[in-house]
Design a protein that fits this description.
2 copies of one chain form a homodimer. Helices cover 33% and strands 23% of the residues of chain A. The first copy, chain A, contains 12 helices and 12 strands. In chain A, the strands form 3 sheets. Chain A has a 6-stranded mixed beta sheet. The first copy, chain A, has a 4-stranded mixed beta sheet with strand order 3-6-4-5, covered by helices on one side. In chain A, strands 1-2 form a two-stranded antiparallel sheet. In chain A, β1 and β2 form a beta hairpin. The longest helix of chain A has 18 residues. The N and C termini of chain A lie far apart (60 Å). β3 of chain A pairs antiparallel with β2 of chain B.
Chain lengths: 365, 365
């Protein structure tokens, strides 16, 4: 039963609306929400929108030893660019893709996603575009958009601003978790190309582009065919589908361990903290990762940050993804084949380094 | 492997810190996080903090037909009172309890919780107190604190302010979902007492208390023994444990349907939208709920809102919980026993109305 059929007092008398919160407006927006939820669903989703929680029938998914993998994330200060450009759909895609990648690197299939939008005052047009972006990305990731919360917080966010948070749950068969424990010296690092800055390093990048280098949003980005706004607002790449395909192809058995035939032993999502912060999250204690930073072509946006940003080499790789959004730790004999399969799925990929004996560190060469 | 052993450039040169984001500070805070995660864990939690996603081994929980129930929520403008009073632990409890109640009303056991804190600049003391509150509430709810995200967003939130969002996943055996479909005319409404405003109606309540009635935070609340600050900051009650106990006692079979012996057929969490907005979320289309608003004593904070707030009667019950944080739809022969069991578990409870034939509406008498 939709909420808006409940009895309500007349609108003219509403003290809560005077205090800045409009429950009727919030309810009206939930109409569009139901359509979008329906278009980004899965057969396991039960019940109706508007319930207290989203229901997902895991017993239909056929997992024998299901381990749930969950992550919560925000878009961060990239949102400021959405505000100033009036382009909101892309950040909706950003939050979904950031979240699904975080569970994908552990070998999990993303199951469902929920969003949180905190706003000063609900702006239906903005919310609809965010929702359209989230629904699109959920469909592409094969993940159900199962619910969310839109909070009106008067005096909290500036006019026209909001925060956008996502929560995702995925599932993996327990013996197939990509824990990284099977990574060994000699394994190759395969880098999967990013679509841009994704959602990280924007506080620094916008300072460099707009304050230091005095670019405007509509300026053409030197060395590329797109505007600065296009380059900086390009949505986060989604690696979940590709990674699931690669795991099916390269880790065929019932375990993701070191047995013959398996090829992929770990994956790192290059987010906040860059190469230096994220690769160690999956490396075993006795392994280092050596990244050959010249092994892939840098997209224009990263060339500018590197050449004109006044950022040290080390910090570039600690803050930005530098053109690589995901790093896979791959058996040496499988590495070239993984690169080929990724490229065939239209994802740029390169062998960008290797694993050596060490103590959990990243070396940039 | 902890992130902070990764190689990093020297601090003196960090452009990102100058842009307002301190990765080292963020890493140092994660030390405290690990301790708190460890203290609010469950046997199903796998792996280490610092991975890309939280891992929860559902295969250990012994569910035969597991349906996952998930919800995302924020604390809302109650946070402003935490900022002005410097009291942060309670809002940490708030967000957990709000979330676990949302999955509990569908009959689910809360499994794990993740948080999101968006801040302008990380304030370690504030974050530690939020975390302590969340961990405490998770322990009390038997729910694992499995991870989260702390976002530094310079220029986004005002100094000393933050937004706090929670995400919870619970599980219920499919035939035991409290969908509300079994509710019938004649069922009684059992109201469970709230601890205060919980997390709803704060934009209006603070306007009334501080702007209209000119209270100060330290003033004693008329008709009570506590200060205005204590009353308004009282953490959200957690009903998840009690509801699970009641369901075990009153719905003993393998299904939560109408068969003999079952006693509880629906539950509504009275959050944003009050009685009028939330009871219909669980009512069948052909049922109305008639709430006798005189059936329970109103805590002082609600008496003041009702008597001096200048809010219409209808809107009071559309915005505030008015002393009832959860409503159960109960077989008439079980209602008094449900009330007794709740009270024995130290939760005030009353029969506050009944279900009648209708079309999904709430009537306040």
């Amino acid at each position: 039963m939709p909420k808006d059929t409940a009895e309500k007092s007349t609108k003219s008398k509403k003290a809560y609306a005077q205090a800045g919160v409009d429950i009727d407006l919030a309810d009206s927006i939930k109409g569009g929400l139901k359509d979008q939820l329906a278009r980004a669903s899965r057969p396991e989703v039960l019940g109706k929108a508007g319930g207290f929680g989203g229901l997902f029938d895991l017993s239909k998914s056929g997992y024998k030893r299901p381990v749930l993998v969950s992550s919560v994330d925000g878009v961060g200060t990239k949102l400021k660019l959405a505000f100033s450009s009036g382009r909101h759909e892309g950040v909706g895609q950003d939050i979904v893709n950031h979240c699904v990648n975080d569970v994908a690197v552990l070998g999990a299939e993303p199951l469902f996603f929920l969003d949180y939008v905190g706003m000063g005052k609900l702006e239906p047009g903005v919310f609809q575009r965010l929702l359209a972006g989230m629904a699109k990305a959920c469909r592409e990731a094969g993940c159900a958009l199962i619910g969310g919360e839109t909070a009106q917080m008067p005096g909290f966010y500036k006019a026209g601003e909001y925060d956008l948070v996502g929560s995702v749950v995925g599932v993996v068969e327990k013996p197939k978790i990509l824990s990284g424990a099977a990574i060994r010296p000699g394994d190759k690092l395969v880098g999967l190309g990013s679509s841009g800055l994704h959602t990280n390093g924007y506080s620094l990048a916008t300072r460099i582009f707009f304050n230091k280098l005095r670019f405007r949003m509509d300026d053409r980005l030197p060395g590329s065919e797109v505007t600065v706004a296009d380059a900086l607002l390009e949505p986060h790449a989604n690696y979940a589908g590709l990674l699931q395909q690669l795991l099916k192809r390269f880790n065929k058995g019932t375990r993701s361990d070191r047995r013959a035939g398996n090829g992929i032993f770990g994956a790192a999502h290059i987010t906040g903290g860059g190469f230096t912060g994220n690769i160690p999250r999956i490396l075993p204690e006795k392994c280092d990762a050596v990244v050959a930073t010249g092994a892939w072509p840098k997209p224009a946006v990263f060339e500018i940050l590197a050449d004109q940003g006044g950022v040290t080499f080390d910090e570039l790789y600690e803050v930005f993804n530098m053109g690589i959004g995901m790093v896979l730790m791959v058996a040496p004999e499988a590495a070239e084949d993984v690169v080929r399969k990724a490229r065939r799925a239209r994802r740029p990929a390169w062998i960008i380094g290797e694993v050596k004996a060490g103590r959990g560190r990243v070396h940039l060469t």
